[in-house]
Structure formats: C-alpha cells, structure tokens
Protein 1
Amino acid sequence: MQVKLNVVVGAVALLLGGASMAQDLVVKIGHVGPTSGTIAHLGKDNELGARMAIAELNAKGVMIGGKKAKFELLAEDDAGDPKQGTAAAQKLADAKVNGVIGHLNSGTTIPASKIYFDAGIPQISPSATNVDYTRKGYKTAFRVVANDSHLGGTLGKYAATTLKGKSIVVIDDRTAYGQGVADQFEKGVKGAGGKVIGREFTNDKATDFSAILTSLKAKKPDVIFFGGMDAVAGPMLRQMKSLGIAAKFVGGDGICTGDLPKLAAGTIADDQVYCAEAGGVEGESKKGMDAFKAKFKEQYKLDVQIYAPYVYDSVNVMVAAMVKAGSAEPAKYLPVLAKTEGYKGVTGTISFDNKGDIKNGALTMFTYRNGARAELAVVR
C-alpha cells in the first residue's frame, strides 16, 4: 500500500512539475538607447522606463496563450552612433528577441529598422521622429510619438505667429533627427508666412559655436532654431549669452529636457527657450502621467528626463498585443500590434495608422522659467 502511495505521490509531483514548466514562457524584449556618450542621460532615462515596465509585468503574472510569461530585458547601448546601433540590432536579432523597444535617435533607429524587418522582429521607437522611419515599407516599425512633419511644422508656425519672428535663422547638427526636424521647421515657418534668413550647420559632438554665432549675430535674428540634442544646445545657449545674442531659442524634443538648464550653466532667461515634446497628455490623462513621474522618482531617485514614459508605454503596448494574440511569437502578434486601437497609456491614447505612426499624435509646448521646464499647451 505504501509503495502504491509513493508511486501516486511521485506521479502527482511529476504532473505538477510538468504543469509548472509548461506555464513558464520566457519573453525576451530588447531595448536600445545611448547609455554612453553625450546624451547618456537620455538613454538611461529610456532604459529605466523599460525596466519599470518589465518589473511590473513580471509582478502581475501576465498570461500569454495559457502560459505564465517571464519577461527579460536585453539592454544594449548604441551611443547614439548609427554603426553601433546596427551592431546592437544584429546582436538582438541573433538573440531571437520577441520584440525591440528603441532606438532613441532617428539616426540609429532608421538603419536598425532594416535589420529588425529582415528578422521579422517588431520594433517600437519611443522617440525617433524622422519621417523616413515609417516610410521604408517595413511593417515591423512603429512609433508612439508624433513625427517631424508634425513636430517641426508646428514649431515653425509657432515661431512665425506666436513668437512673431521676423528674422529667423536655423542651425542643425546634420543628424537624421536634427536635419529632419530643421527641414520641417523651415517649411512650417514659410507655410505661416514667415521667412528664414539664414541656415547653418554643426555636428552632434560640437562644443564651440563662436564662428556660427558671430556670423548669425550680424543678421540680428530674433529667433534661432536648433535641430539637435540638449548636449549641444546647452553650450550653444551659453555662448549666445556671452556674445550678447538675446534671440528666442527654439528646438524640438531633443532639447526639451530637464537637464537643459544645467547644460546651459544657468544662462537661460525666463521665456527665452521654447521647445516641443513629441507627445502630450491633458485632462484626466494627466493624472496617469503625473503618477508615473512620481513612481519613477520614488523608485530611481531621479526625475524623468523626457522619454521614459513613452518607453514604458511601448513595452506595455507590445505585451498587450502578445496577450491578445495568445502568442509572443513575432509573426503571430505583429498583425495584432499593427491594429492597436485606443490603448490607454500614461502618455495618452495609442492607436497606429497603416504606416506604424501614432494616430492624432500630440505635441506639448514648453518654455523654461526659474531654471525648470514650464508647460505651455498641448497641441494636436
């Protein structure tokens, strides 16, 4: 009798163990951003947004196709460099990740998107705004922010009408993001009846702008637009101050960060800098964003820089598609992801159009007062 009982107990244990193993589904999600280099503060901000989402999903015990999912984050650094970005993308493709969140910069996102497409891996960028990203015909590419056409165009109109710019000059850093948003800004200015009286170029590693700014000072600009990131905009603002250039300074989401006043060494005057973040929440949705920022601060002892909430939503949108499809296999959940409609995230409602762009993408206009960002308005 005892032998029979032991056999039964052993069989039950085996069955339970087998059932437990059957429920364990490992889902690997890649994240790529510049966690080294001049904009590492933005890349780390993104990665922390991904880590927060992954930790919460694991705590919830998400079920996919009847199995309990265990999410793993494979984080890579692209240093904001296109070559390093494609190497990171290939590494994730070789690791057979189930999906990728990233990259941060358009210049790394666009070349990497071909690698993910060839591997059939869905990719959601939380921050790449260059129009070309979703114009390549890669059905694996998505983004949760408005593109440069909307972002740059809106800023151009704002500079010409609201800021009443009469002599507007444009500087860009020659990256896919900087040049793209500057081109769209120029179109927006002209569309609103304004005039761009000069255009200059720098690069995303530059720190000395004396030659460019001295040349521009002679044109007496009232608005200077910079297409690039905060690590370059900060020193540029410092040098504008030392040269006595009092023009309004306008830029896209790349400069629209919490660190800009520090990078400008406290030289920003109130209502001197205007920028737009490619996203935005208002009304009831704002409570969700505020709660996210408070939770982020409590968990990491850091303020959100800019994109972390968009990364957080990107992870959750991807996983929601897996749950709905009943599978984490890219080929099975990709069609469901493409049809995402009305997902309520902390950054607002997410729906994708047939190109992979967010529908009705919002922009949030900011200025800086007392050394901190101050929200002006949400624009659609």
Protein 2
Amino acid sequence: MRILVLGATGYLGRHVAARLGALPGARILAAGRSPTAEFGVDLAADPVERLAKTLAAAAPDAVVNCAGATGGAPVTLAEANARGPAALCAALREAAPTARLVHLGSAAEYGPGVPGTPVTESAPARPVTLYGATKLAGTLAITTSALDGVVLRVGNPVGPGAPMASLPGRMAALLRSAGRDPGAVLRLGDLSAHRDLVDVRDVAEAVALAVAAPGQLPPVLNIGAGRAVAVRELVNSLARLAGFRGRLEESACGSARSAQVSWQCSDISVAARSLGWRPARTLDDALTALWSAAGERVP
C-alpha cells in the first residue's frame, strides 16, 4: 500500500509516518515543503494542476494530510488550513479519485464546550478563533468533496517532540532551562482552561486505523482522550517530572484563545465503534515521553 503523508516532517506528521510505516506492506511517501521530502508539495500555494501531477506520480492508495498552520497571520492560516485541503481535494479528484483521504482536523472547530458535556460529531461547529474557523473550512472541503475521505478532529496532542508553539513544548523548554534552582520563578498566564489532552502516539494509531479500515467511514471522527483536564494539572505534572524546585506564578491574564474557549472535551465513542480505537496512553505517559525527548534535544 502506497501512503502519501503530507506534512510528514511536522510534529504530528513524524509520528503518523512512523506508525504508518509499521503497517504490513506499507510504503510511506513523504510530501511537503522540506527539501528532504520525496515529493515537493506546498498545499498553501501550489496550483491544483501541479498538485494533480504530483499525485499522479506518487500513485497513492491513501493520502494523509498532516499539513497545516496553528498560528501566524490570517492569510497564512487561511492558505494552509482552508485553501490547502480544498486544493488537495480538487487534485485528488483528478489524479487519484479512489485513494482514501485522512485529514487531521481540530477540536477547535467546535468552539466553546459546555463544562461536563463531551461534544459529539453531530454538535454544531461554532469556532471563535481564526484558527478554528480555517480548520473548519478545511473540514468542509473534505466532507463535501465526494471522495473517500474522513476528518479526524484531534484534541490537544501531547507527547515527544511537542513544538515550542504549544504549551507543553514551551513548558518543557522553560523547565529544562530552570533546572532545579530553588530560586527559579516561572511566570505563566491563566491555567484554568480545561482541554482534552491526547497522546500524539495515540493520534498516530487512530490515523493508521483510519487508513486501513475497510468500507466507508463516518465523515468526521473525534480523536481525544475523552476527558477534560485543567491546563494547570498538565503544568504541575510536568514540573514534578522535571524535579522543579522553584515557583510557578500564575496570572489572571492568559492567551485570548484560552479565554474564549475555557472548556473542551470530545466524545470519542464513534471512533471506538468505527475504528476500534481508544487512547492507550495516559497523560502521565505523554508527559514522561515529552520530558525525556526534550532532554535529548539539549546539547
């Protein structure tokens, strides 16, 4: 099975490509903007005609789209998260219409959740951030394409290799820098928001199951831990793992994104029924792997 992975060098993409490579008979074809990619692809900018030629050359049985942007200017978000999936669908219809398409969406597409109530795939999507809105546009491009496509709406992935743009990655770097100095003070924003924190390796497992699943899948599947955890708990757990002896100072001011969406949790029962998938790792597992990998990156 030839599986084209877009964004294979990114945080999610690296884990996804590694897991897909373990599928029997799988050949992973890396695609993206990296000079090391087997197929050069820029979903945000490449004309559909060029994308179609690339897809024809790759001749994939399945395509996994891990490419996208989590931050940046509005145009950057729109090009990567909305234009990219739409162009990919147009190119697939022309060059590989029978290939399965697995696209990584985001729980941010739902917008604010109701505390105590996990959100299902049938809930209205009401994003309140530009990131969530552009990811929703990408989802709609997939679900209205008439292709054999499925969108995995991922919660907040945590685990080895978490980037500095994410809170877990940033916290690991801060704690590594602070060491065990009892006089160290880390000043943080409001940590009261609750998030569905899922191990990135469990996300990769869900992708592998979606690629290999026989028959039609539901158009959207929630992929998360199925429980909401206070961001404060994540920070404190990582600090304990690090042996941090200093002080964490939390202010009332945090990111606008967290303030707008104070609670998120996904109902993952449809993924369990459709894919036979459940998260296999705990938050502690994810944080332990994150901390270990963060240490490996320090000279």
Protein 3
Amino acid sequence: MSGPDALEVQVDRWRDYVRRHRAVAPDDVDEMTDHLRERIDDLRAAGLDDDEAFLVAVKRMGRLDAVSAEFARAHSERLWKQLVLLPDSPAPDADPARRELAVVVGCAVGAGLTVKAGTTFLDEAALLLNLGLLVAPFVAAYLGWKRRLAGRTVAALLAGAVVLGVVLNTYPFDPAGSTLLLAALHAPVVLWALVGVAYTGGRWRSPDRRMDFVRFTGELAVYYVLLALGGGVLVGLTAGLFSLTGLDLEPAMEQWILPLCVPGAFLVAAWLVEAKQEVVENIAPVLTRVFTPLTTLMLLACLVVLATAGDLTTVDRELLILMDGVLLLVLALVLYSVSARDPLRRPGLFDGLQLGLVVVALTVDAVALTAMLTRIAEFGASPNKVAALGLNLLLAVHLARSAWLLLGLLRHRRAFGVLERWQTAYLPVYAAWAAFVVVAFGPSFVFA
C-alpha cells in the first residue's frame, strides 16, 4: 500500500496509540490528530514524501507525555483534575536544567548591568527611549536559545532591533515634545513583537504559537508582579533593619539595587513561566473569570460618566487616556479567557458575560472616538490625538469582530476556533501600528 492510503493508515495507528494513552482525554485526540495532519501537510508542501513527512511530524509533536502536558495547559479547566502524572517516565536530566538556569542568570545579570550602564551614561530622554532596547534583547536571547532559533530568524530579529535602535537614537526628538513620549511608549510594543517571534521559534504565522505567546505574556505579567511585590517587601524590611542601625539604604537602592534587580526579575519571571510548563492551571486565564464581570460594571460606570460629561470637546484628556487603558484591559481579558476556554465546551453563561463586556466596551469606545474626533475638529490634530485615535480605531475593529463571533458562538452558528484564530491573527496589527508611530510620527509632526 502506498500514497495517501498508506499515510492515512499510519495516522490512524498513531491516533489509536494516542487514544489508548491514559493521560489524554478522548475529546483531545481529534484536535491532536488535526495538529499532526497540519504538520504533515506543511512538510509535504516543503518537498518531503508521505513517509518522511509522517515520521518528521510525529517527532516534532514530541514525546507523548510532553504533548499531554501541552494539552493539559491549553485545556486547563477541563483537565484540572486529570493531572498529567506519568510515574514510569524517566527522571528529568539535571544537566539541561542547570544549563538553562545558567543562561537565565547570565541574561538577567546582563540585562541588569546594561540598564545600570544606561542609567549612568544616558540622559533622561535617551534612557526613556532606549529602556526597552536594554532589556528585550536578553529576553529574546533566552527564548531564542531555548527554541534553538535558526540563523535566518536570529538575523531578522537583530535587524529589526538595530533598525528600531537607529530610529530612536538618530531622530532629533524634542525632549519636551509629544513624539518622543509616543516613541518611548510604542517602541516596547515593537520589541515585544520581536520577542514573540523568538518565543514561537520563528513560527509566528502559526495561530497556535501566537496563542501560546499570549498565554506566556499573561503569565509573565502575573509572575513579575508577584516577584515585584515580594522583592518590595524584602527590600523594605531590609531598609527598615538598616535604618535602626543608622545606615541609609536609599542611595544603594537607587544606584544599584533597582537598576540591577528590576530588569533581572523580568528574566527570572520569564524563566519561571517556562519552568512551570508541567503545571496544569495557569494564573492569568483564571483571573479573567474574576475580573470580567467587575470590568463590565466599571465600564458601565465610565459610560455614564462620559454620557453626562456634556460637550464632548470639554471631556478631560486624561479621562480619554484612562478609557484607552480600560479598553486595553478588556482586550486582555478577552484574549486570556479565549486562551483558557475548552474549544469543545458548549457556549454558556461566561461566554454571555464576555459578549456583554465586549458590547459595553464597544459603546465606550464609540463615545471616546466621537470625543476625539470632536476635539480634533475643534482644536486641530496633534501627535497625541492622532495616536489615540488610531489606537481606538484598531480596538473598535478588534472588539466589533470579537462581538460578532461571540454572538455567533452563542447562537451555535460559529465554531470557537474562528474566534480564537481572530484574536491571534489581529495581534500583529497592533505591532505594525506601534512601529508606524515610532517611525512616522516624528517626521510627520516635525519631532514636536
């Protein structure tokens, strides 16, 4: 037997083997088989024959226990009580763990020393512009080392970082101007997109890998906050003890502790997220279930404030900026709830709550857009107004499409996978807009 029939026989045998494995829920077998078929199709398109494509695809799927753990992370709610415990699996090799820890420590120390050098030799404006460039390359280096990035991908990442660095440091920004602040705020978004390419191993076009990066980003934020809180308590207690002996820790804290520890903790947080891959329940998606209804209530209150503010040209600019922050929070809640949802679960109450949250957010966004357009028509365009308007338009498109897909999901007319793919497919648009702001806004507004 040869050709497509032989390939189907091999896929069926693999499927049967996976189905018999106790760590994999029966409902997951179909999704795992789809992943295998996608890999086979990609390899066949690259020129491999059926047998070669099958063998390479199975190898890239990884050991079955690793695949099971991956599915446990992706479907944490359904598998929370079905922990992937394989008592007969071999003990992990300690040498790779030690090597990874050494790489993490090296990158953390490198990031800390680089930031320390920046605080010493750069002025305030230059440090603000380059802060992301002082830390992000070390995060990308760690993730790239772990993913064993191809040389072509490494070269592309380096080229992107160099171009960004040249733009930030050669543009004649006015230190008191808006374009400098906008460039400083949007450059980290571009850099984080480059880190995402490193995290995905260069496979940034894959929706699954992009969603993995979304999960990684949420977990990283939670871990970093926890480390910051713990570190703050530790430093505070230490400073209190030193003060009792007449020693002032504040100069050392400003000159060494904070410049070294703050960026170093970011690398440690990234390592912790990577190291906890065997933990089934993720933190960030769980928090979305708590904050989704609370954020909906907050948005309703904000909508009332905007609706009763009177003339939209008099709406406080800081209030509009705060609204953008709230809308970004809504976007994060939608992303992380989608990342944690079981795609096979029937639509339920929480999906309805999500739709309500998105609809209210869209209403707030519409009012904010109206206020921004009114202010631009009344007072003219400025870098801040145009940047805020562009972000709100992007958010409006993202949220509107999400609301439509959520409605279709609740009415059983759309598959969950369509909603999931939309979330990850739209993310590069934000990175492209951030790059446009950094590169184009300075010359367009005469660097004011």
